[in-house]
Predict the structure of DUF4336 domain-containing protein.
Amino acid sequence: MGAAPTLVPEPLAQGVWGVAGGPVIWRGGVAMPLRTVVIELSGGTLWVHAPGVLTDGLRDWLETRGRVAHIVLPHAPELPHLGDWQAAYPGARIWRGAEVKTASWAGEIRPLVLEGAQTEVVFLHQASRSAILSRLIIAVETAPLPVWMRPLVWLAGIDDSDGKPPLGLAGRLGGRKAVGDLVEQVLDWGPERLILTHGRCYTRDASGEVKRAFRRLMRDRLWDRALSEARRG
């Protein structure tokens, strides 16, 4: 299953780390790589997104950085190690879905919430201009995968040669217009990097990568707007 998990925090920006953990099971039994993101908040507390494997070494490292105060859960798949984090940090607040709109840390890590049949949240760490994406873009490296699994990732269109949202995501999140509105808000942020929960990260030209991943959806929006303007004219 992909590159072996390192469980060693990788610095991604000032005060931002990624931890490549064990895989989580996606639809069809596909094992997806999981990246836990740890961010230092002002006041010495830590914000953790998508908690993965929690080892003694990782716990020791976290203690050197601050107190784990907020654990944020992305939508599906289920995170098998959440119970370990809850036991280790009983005082940490667990955040799910649209609850993040009321979070005290929203001034430092800005949430964008899209609610349809399912809920998706995109975060922007203001200080580093890092956008944290769960399912909005997935970019899985396929070369190390078991042979039987590679076609499933290719067919879903989420391999790292052309990372994008998984098939059918727009329908689960309120439709193409709703997702397009969200994408435009992300572009308005002007992020400098994209940190993905599943797959590789994009450390440069973040806005260009967002436009590439959603090129068909955004092309259709531009076409619809042009038609609307022509009718008004």
Q: What stands out?
A: The two ends are 55 Å apart (CA to CA). The CA atoms of residues 88 and 119 lie 27 Å apart. The chain has a mean pLDDT of 89.
